[in-house]
Amino acid sequence: MFDKDKWIEIIQVILRNPFRAILSGIGITWGIFMLIITISSANGLENGAKTNMANRAANSMFLWTQQTSMAYNGFKEGRGFNLNNSDVEYLRDNVSTVKLVSPRIQLGGYNGSNNVTRGVNTGAFNIYGDTPDYITIEPNDVYKGRYINDFDIEEGRKVCVIGRRVYNVLFPDEEDPIGEYIRINGVNFMVIGVYRSYRKGEDAEEATQSIFTPISTFQKAFHFGDYVGWLSILIDDEVSAAIASEDVVAALKSRKGVHPDDPRAFGFWTMAEEVEQLDTLFSGIRLVAFVFGGLVFIAGVVGIINIMLITVKERTKEIGVRRSLGATPGSIIQQIISETVFLTLLAGLVGLIFGVGIVELLAYALKDAEDAMFLNPYIKFNTISSALVIMIIMGVIAGLLPALRAISIKPVDAIRTE
Predict the structure, then answer these.
(1) What is the C-alpha separation between 246 and 260, in angstroms, rounded?
(2) Which of 145, 189, 377, 408 is spaced 20 to 30 Å from 119 by Cα?
């Protein structure tokens, strides 16, 4: 039941020395504020990182060859080898845990750029040989024309899909690029589509500095034979990335004469592993935030305990009079703990309001930001609820020691105190 007189007395006790009350609550206010800010910031960084990864399918895998680290079947250690078109067909026919296998090749090797011209306009861009399946594994928005299709592959058509950055450089007058030709390493390709990335900021700019061509055309035009640079793979939805990656690597080891236990012959990574590592990283950041915020909070509680001990000492005579008039030890303990809980909760709520307010202002300021490295900071409601519960519990603990100190003094001795 709500006792109006009790709460009036609690407020009067706090207002009797407001400066002391403010100083005692600063630690708790700051601890809750920092807890909210750090956790929200970690969530904002995680949102930004995952947004930049969102243009790849969650069940995707990327694999390439490296040098062997073990001798096997007459082959020496340190042997280099490549993937080719037949390996792609082999995986499609023999590994049931994958849905799509899309071979890729890049002109100039990984991160290599090449001069591309159209009339007097020129630029250095990434040139890829791809299949129609690749856009399923790493989606892009083809907003003009179309993407590569199966007929382009079968007929070896000299066509290409260009990124928006490529379009801006080679077509500065914003004319329609569809059906126009660009020149890549002396070979003419007809533009059939323009794409833009689902990423944001600088990552989106980088992602649209590429040109996609049919892999069959690429291999012939640039004299790569049946060579494949690496594989982009879509794993079956019902299969874990770990199991599928083991199946793929085991199949290729058998086909390429690589020792079954060789750990270095193939390099690969899966999007599921990247997401898992990201979750682990930001869980660690949130844990650190809890620990340091909790330490600051505990320091604030210790400050409140000290203040309440001083307050109890100042009110020793008052407590003695109450005890003489029939107040039970339980009622004294309840009164002091109520004061402590109220002060702790009030200080915590101030930090909570300021923290959530700053987070909301930051989220509003960044809602139209191009750079997705930090995006939509937030804090979950259950985290706030947990913080409130912890504040109440710590308030009770903080009031327990001063309350026990108050009832440990005999009423007669308390009344005589000057």
Answers:
(1) 11
(2) 145
